[in-house]
Amino acid sequence: MSIVLNADDSNSPQQGRPRDKNLDDALIRITLDLLSQTGLEGVTMAKVGRLSGIPATSIYRRYPDAKSLIMAAIEDDLAKLQLHLEDHGSLRADLFAFLKMLAEALNPERARMLAGLLLPMHHDPELAALLSKKLEAIRNEGWRGVIDRAVQRGALRAQALEVEPLDDVAQTMIFYQAVVRRMPADEVFLNRLLDTVLMPALQRLGDGEPETNVDA
């Protein structure tokens, strides 16, 4: 499929005009599609140009090589993840909202893309740094935000903020469900993850009565 755009580089930064956002968006979209379908090695400047219908000169003015285009596409995609969660009134409700956000973010296309980056990131420090930065942001803004709110409510002791393996368990199980098992991390799965793994572990650090699933 070819995307036909005005690829005239009169909007080139070299001539003092803003870059064509539609053209940039098309390059990012095609690159993400290729990453999802073929993995890192399947992304070439020639293939992106052919699929987008954008002249090579326009692409190279923006990105000097395939790696810079790939990094820009990954960063653009991960930047779209919304991590700020509202207060839902209880630890369990907040955790469920956080897990649901993760599950929705890990759509089939993004799941395939991330799966294809696992091996390359071990050999590419720049790629590893980009992915690690985003995963750490999810931990700090998502999981830690939920736990900190529970500590402020008095539902958990402050040491709960240091129980990082539970955060890893939550993200890993959702990733495994989506990527390895290729099954949706639906509400049934998320409730089971909460009630059999996360809540029992966290309640050991609580000061009050264990929370129950009021929706069950």
UniProtKB/TrEMBL annotation:
MF (Gene Ontology): DNA-binding transcription factor activity; transcription cis-regulatory region binding
Instruction: Provide the HTH tetR-type domain boundaries.
Output: 21-81
Ranges annotated as DNA-binding:
44-63
Establish whether keyword Transcription is in the entry. Answer: yes
Q: Which Pfam families match?
A: TetR_C_11
Residue segments, region Disordered: 1-20
- Would I find Ribosomal protein among this entry's keywords? no
Spell out the SUPFAM superfamilies in the cross-references: Homeodomain-like, Tetracyclin repressor-like, C-terminal domain
Name the keywords, alphabetized: DNA-binding, Transcription, Transcription regulation
In Swiss-Prot or TrEMBL terms, this protein is called: TetR family transcriptional regulator
